[in-house]
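quick one if you have a minute, typing this from the bus. theres a chain ive been looking at and ive put its sequence and its fold in token form underneath. please have a look and point out which stretches look like helix strand or loop to you. anything you notice is useful, everything is just below.

***
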Amino acid sequence: MGYGAAIVALLVAAVGVRLMYGPISLDFLRQPLMQEFVTADSSLKVDADHIYIQWDGISHPMQLVFKGLRMSDGKRQTVAAAPSVALSFEPGSVLKARFLPTAIVVERPTFEAEIAREGGVLQRVLARGDSSSQGEIVDLLIGQLMAEPNYTSLLGQLDTVRVEHAHLTVHDVPSGVTWAAPDVQARLKRDQSGVIISANAQFDDGNAGAVNVAFSGTYARDRSRISAELRIEGLKLSMLAALSPKAGLLRGVDVALAGRMHVEASGAGDIQSMAIEITGGSGTITLPGLLPVAHQVRSVDAVASLDAASHTAKIDHVLVDLGGVRITLAGDGMRTEQGQNFTGRAKIQGIPIDQLGNYWPMEFAEGGRAWAVANLSRGTLDVAAEFGLSAPGGDLSNMSVDRAVATLAYTGLRVHYMPHMPELEKVTGTARYENAALHFDVAHGEGVGLTVTNATIDLMDLDRPPPQFAKLHMPITGAAPAVTALLARPKLGLPKDVLYDPKRLGGDVSIDLTMSFPLLNALAVSDLDIKSEATLSNFSLKGAIGAVDLTDATGKVVYENSHLDVTGAGKLDGSPIEVVWREQFGAKVSYRQRYELKGTVPAAAVAKAGFPSAEPYVSGPLGVTSLSYQVAANGTSELHSRLDLKGASSSVPQLGWRKEAGVESQASLAMKFASGGKLASVEFETHGGGLTAKGGARFGGNNVLEQIAIKELTVGRTDLSGDWRRVGNATDIDLRGRSIELSRVRDALNGREDGGKGAPSGAASRTNSSRSGEKTRVALRLDQVFVKRGTLGSLNGRFEMSGDRIDSAELSIGAGRGGTFRVQPVPGARSVALYVSDFGLLLREAGWLDGLNGAYLDFRGRFNDMAASSPLAGTLKFGPYHLQKVTPRPDVDSLNSAIDGLNRAGNALQQFDSLEAQIVKTGDRVEVKNGRTSGKSIGLTTAGYIDLGNDTARLRGVVVPGFALNNLLSNVPLLGPLLTGGKDGGVFAISYRLEGPFDDLKSDINMMSAVTPGALRELFNSAQDGPPPSPSGQSNRWP
């Protein structure tokens, strides 16, 4: 055996020396050597074109090289091949005759792999199984590394496999994209845990540049799992653009990325979990058709993971720094039976509003984008978005957006919300995008002296074709002038007549403004849908009505497209009121304007407001229970009011009526106006303070009064109704009722007279001129005519006037057993006839005078219309009558004192035959001439005047005692007048005077005149009388 060992050693040494000079062919050992490559459980067969052994030196291992190595299956089909496989031996082991290689080097093999994705998610990486791929050689060698070490097989001590200069091609099956690595270096080393794998490669798709990949991992000995880590440098997202039609946008992402991927997979290559970390440096993002400009990228950082067991994927974060603008993305994905779902969250921080269009995708909500770019400026914007994506069946080409919600936070914005409207400055708030609508919550904004808080802006239907629509809700606070100046902007289209001059306003206003309009660059008023609700505080309006100011007002104003509503309270000329104002602007509305007012208004404010003065009829506070003024669509209008006059003092001088403050009184008024504000009718009713009145009036064109209907008039003892109607150039008056007070008739006539005194002279002359030619026809049906202390009984009949002159009359009265008054026209004059059956009874019933019994009264005369003032002259006949002493009645005069005086001259109670006098009336002055009456024992004469204008009388005359004897000489020519003083005088007679107001006549008797001859007796009378007063003048009283 010693020789044998020596001989082997010599042979080995000889072979070693031989190898020093070049490889030695071992083709003759092909069959046994090929058998050593096959594991016990493999059905593959291995063959080689050529086998040789080489040794490059003592410091190098010996190598057994197989050229053209092939592997075939049981059907003799080649399944794998390698150009060259070298087995390395340590020289020492060879010298010991141990041919057990520890390493294998595979040079320049070609590998092809396929990437399978399900729903876009990496599922597994498989080596291609056709003959073009030489990956099965590696699989075979891995199998050898997985086997237990032994000394019986050729590869029993193999612990390392190196792959050098391999060519690796990776195919993405869904997209057909291929990446190639022409020089891959790999190393597989046996370990107790399995096989440790490391590799380096540089991929190039031929377009985007090189990507360096470093791989390290462990293949478990039981082939149950693979744990690997992949490090990548130089990857650009643009390289992935071809993976899917929807990934085409990635072509514009030119950012070099570096990353680490840790993969846990099954032994069969099915990925179970994956963790990814990516970082990136500077670059650009250019997305034509999506973003209008390129964006510079400073850095990228991302972390993501995948769990195949739970079918979930998670993006922990993606951070992109665009140089001031930062983008953050996170999300979670899940695979279900229906397909792939992904829920994500994104943030974009620090977007300059002036560059908003550079970040807003061009085809996303085009109307909203165009409006925002055109109307937003300054400030910054932060965006936080939540979105949901789904791909039914895992088909990314059918990916849809299921949910998109974005929250925006902005500060310092300038919002130009409408053309030709003032901008909002310093706008701060948030916004939310959801369901194709963008909702802004504006916390604060300022503009033109106004402040906006808690406003909202809604951009709607952003997923529909333009135009989209916007709705603004803006609570605005500020000074009333500033708010009104805003609302007066022509763009809002508010009617000018609902706005006031800002210079007239004061106080604070809070407006809740709502507007809806399409997102158009050019808006018309018709495009706007506006609603405005304003709250007023400390509001004031100069000249709210005429010269009357509204102060200290609070209220609410609501304006909507078709109507305006104002409700509030304040002080009108310093008095508290409540106001409701409504206006409607639609084409078909029940009314245009409606005003309602309640409260207290000073009577003096009526004139200040521009209406006819309520004074002197009413003074003090007017309690307006209700007042409404409504204007119809055709221009007609109505006013209805109810007034509480308790706090006011009221008077109607024409009726002699007055009510002091504190006395209950109410009034109501209804007025209708034709188009243009012309008065058409008035309905009124008042009661309180002893006055009840109800009636109405009708007016023609130019506010000309045409008709008055008094349905009820009760004041004092007056209770009547009546009608006043204008017919052509004439006026018809019809008075009827239970009673009328003569004093109130006088007051009414005085008021009629005084009505023209306050007017300018020209106006007064025109009024008088118009009256002079105006016909008035009056019909009377009155049960009672009351005088101050009695009654004149009934009054019936008619009379007709021309201006203030009676043309004709046919009247009857009931007092004094009846009487008549007639006026009839005759050529150049008018005849007058007055007859009373019992004048003494009339005096008693009227409460004028007691003590006269009997006596008819008969006056016959004429108005001389040819003379100025149309004087009335006629003869008064009176009698027979007698005087009677009576018990005095309160406030009623009697003839008792006259009887006592006459009794001194004779029997005053005797029967008087008659009384006759000449009467001449000029104006209000009635002159009495040649008045005389006589009985058997007394005679009496009278002369003087009665002033109807002042209700006074001044009469004088003589009382002739023993008339039958004392009067005999009065008929003697020359001597009679001298001694007796004239007809019906006497030699002895007593002078008297009767003068003073009608209700307080004073008598004066001069006893000295009894012994004075008749001619001289006049001296006593004249000395005491003095000059007579002049007539009342050209009075307008009935002549």
Residues 837 and 856 are 5 Å apart (CA to CA).
